[in-house]
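Anyone? Bumping this.
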Amino acid sequence: MAEAFERKHPNYVAVWIGLAVLTAIEVGIVYFGLTRKFLILALMLLAVWKALLVALYFMHLKFEPKRLLIIVLIPLPLALILVAFVLQEYGR
Amino acid sequence: MAHAATVHPHPEHAPGQGQVGVYTQKLGMWIFLCSEVMFFTALIGSYIILRWGSLDVWPKPQGVLNIPLTALNTFILICSSVSMVKAFASITHGDQAGLKKWLVVTCFGGAFFVSVQAYEYWHLSHEGFVPGGFVEGSELFRRALEGHIAGATGGAIVPAAANLFGSTFYTMTGFHGFHVTCGVVCMIWVTIKAFRGGYTQTGYHGVEVVGLYWHFVDLVWIILFTIVYLF
């Protein structure tokens, strides 16, 4: 059946430039001599930022119905719980 | 900058949309991707725990892995994601030539990524870095023995302790590489169908669903590249 609802296309080239710049910053700061804690924090932030750009614009989550968004978001807290519990196990 | 290709007055109730508001194949792909999130979370979680538990003996990835080459490969995968989404945008505008062109570019991008990963494996194994760690007597083993490969905390590592690094590295990148390979196969199939005129301005579900998988593989690599290569 043909899909017949409003299909939005953001500026993909702008997103691509953003991803390329963020990747260059990521690689650059590794050789910049930052303290380990700050480096991990910065790399995590950059990785999450890039992942969000891909999910929101390339996978069109920004434009999808809210019901689909809820389905997609369900595994994320489960994933966090999984990692958090294993981390606690290590901390003992 | 967003613009509409086709407009329906009530998108939620458009034909074939179901209760969630998207067509069945797309919903199925998203549910599959949710299961993939849990799969890769298990791998990444295990990696984090194993690494935190052996910080002193874990080699700094920069001392073993080729970061510039992998950064280039990451860029290529990101480019292939862009070409995929451009293919999708083309078909929603009825641009058959654009669809074919961008799908071919995506196939080449994916194949390039897998090829570079295969080269990386070949190169690392020749240097003596295998899933079991550093091979005794190899170049990397010697460098580690002489204290030239630093650990994550700054001190020199023991060569024999690189086995965890090796097994987690090959497991995570290997599973991701397998996913990319599956994606390339699917992409070739979609491309062949596109060249046979199998997609239209309103019949583009195959392109979008395979595209979702492709972008997910790209997203996972963004996380893996950061955690495995840069931390």
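Late reply, but here is one note on the structure posted above: Chain B touches chain A through 68 residues (CB under 8 Å).
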